[in-house]
């Protein structure tokens, strides 16, 4: 399958990986919107968060990875935001499930 994030997960396209386990990788977003902007993805391909939610094992693994990473980096204390865009109106631009972890500065609400 010609999928950008499958290629990143497979090491075919380089990325700055900050977290990895058997099911998940976390890597730096190429266009960060904050000092800390990491994308967490499953190594298996799912189109979006709803498709991933049909597989509780991978879904749990994704959120466990975020918990471990944000605790380790002090983001759990400092505060951070997670975002997962689904579909055109939410401006999902890569059709492989990803959760943005954004932190390291004061964030505004509501988002655009
Ligand atoms: P979306 O817009 O789908 O919610 O998020 C996709 C994210 O992937 C964007 O924030 C974009 O900057 C990031 N991105 C797109 N292509 C690449 C790439 O080749 N490498 C990395 N590290 N991030 C990418
Ligand atoms: Zn994929």
What's the arrangement of secondary structure elements?
Elements: H1 4-9, E1 17-20, E2 24-28, E3 36-42, H2 49-52, H3 56-72, H4 75-78, E4 80-83, E5 98-103
Antiparallel strand pairs: 1-2, 2-3, 3-5, 4-5
Bound molecules: guanosine-5'-monophosphate and zinc ion.
Zinc ion (ZN) is lined by residues 3, 5-6, 45, 96.
What small ligands are held by the chains?
guanosine-5'-monophosphate, zinc ion
**Largest sheet, spatial ordering of strands:** 1-2-3-5-4
Largest sheet: 5 strands, antiparallel
| Cα radius of gyration in angstroms | 13 Å
- Topology as H/E string? HEEEHHHEE
Question: Rough shape?
Answer: globular
How many β strands by DSSP? Answer: 5
Portion in beta strands: 15-25%
Percent range of helical residues = 25-40%
- Number of discrete helical segments: 4
Tell me what you see in this structure.
This protein has helices at residues 4-9, 49-52, 56-72, 75-78; strands spanning 17-20, 24-28, 36-42, 80-83, 98-103. It is of the alpha+beta class and 112 residues long. It starts with a helix and ends in a 9-residue tail after the last strand. Bound molecules: guanosine-5'-monophosphate and zinc ion. Zinc ion binds at residues 3, 5-6, 45, 96.
Short description:
This protein is α+β, with helices and mostly antiparallel strands and 112 residues long.
Can you tag this structure with a few keywords?
binds zinc ion, 5 strands, five-stranded antiparallel β-sheet, alpha+beta, binds guanosine-5'-monophosphate, 112 residues
